[in-house]
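User: My collaborator sent over this chain with a note saying "see what the structure looks like." That's all I know about it. Can you take a look?
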Amino acid sequence: MNTLTAFRSAWRALTTNLMRSILTMLGIIIGVAAVITTIAIGNGAQQSVAEQIKGLGTNLLLVMPGAVNASGLRLGAGTGQRLTEGDAIAIGAEVPEVLVAAPSVTGTFQVVSGNANWSTRGVGTTAEYLEAREWPVASGRVFDASELAGSAKVVLLGQTVARELFGEDDPIDRVIRVKGVPLTVIGVLARKGQNSQGEDQDDTLMVPISTFRNRLAGWLAGPQKRVYVVSVKVQEGQSLTDAEDGIRSLLRQRHRLAPGQEDDFNVRKLTEVLQAQEESSRIMTLLLSAVAGVSLVVGGIGIMNIMLVSVTERTREIGLRMAVGARARDILLQFLIEAITLSLLGGAIGVALGAAATWGVATFAGWQVSLSAGSFVLAVCFSAAVGVFFGYYPAQRASQLLPIDALRHE
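Assistant: Without extra context I'll predict from the sequence alone. Here is the result:
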């Protein structure tokens, strides 16, 4: 018996008991669909984290105020407002691993342009902030040193703010009002997307930090020039840890902290936080895939069970085939092909079902997913391997029957 004849014989045997064959494939179908869906969701989660890391900017450190102790009470992170613009300048100049250090202050403002208005987050900073965050300007330009020194009435708009205020019109050289102050739009920032907390980073505007202090937020004016955050970009190839140690040493010296005294600032590596999230999502994907793999194993056991039943039902048929010259390997091949066919058909249907489930998750749940050809190939190959593994024993049992015993079987 050649392979083509064995395939035809196996197909006839499977279609004779169509409903039983479909029910047998059900475990494989569910297992493959689950594998496809979980891998797609896991890959999507990892891509989302990678985009967030890219959105933050590579080699980024954030220096923020620390906590304050008042009458024995710790008032929480950020309450010790001792960071200044001078600290940012010193970090950029004196820590050798640092490429740029940009101070920033923030607030929420109602922005008005003609009949349109929008509430958004305003950032007062320097041009180095965009370099630290790797945030280019899509159109227009960045404010220059003279505008920074002179508290110029200029502003950069995020994509969301530009859309809400001007629609499809070009906002460059248009005037908006923030707290009654007219600001000329000199640039529109490139699209940044959401951050790790799901916040729209494009819903923002940026002005020179001097403009923010002197024209928009009088409570920040003063000789000390306090800042909320210093965004530090470390030079390529330099260690973030070395840069962090240098920053800590410098700020402790500038803030006159005694040995053993707690830092009044915090240095955070956001990329490490997001990379930990990526590792967590990768581990979760592996665990979910393992659970889905159990479904494939259960489906394989179902195939073995049905194939054993089939061998028992067709014992006389096996005896007749052997009596007319069929060899043991022909019988083995026929039953093995039946098991593999069940697995492959179940795998193919499972792939289609998994792709549909992935589409449903992306469409209705709004999750980011990523289908890959590799996951399809992996699922189908695994289902075929299940067919071979669980189908071999019934096939071998059928091939080892003695013709005379098989013909006597009732």
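A starting point for your reply to your collaborator: Residues 103-236 form one domain.
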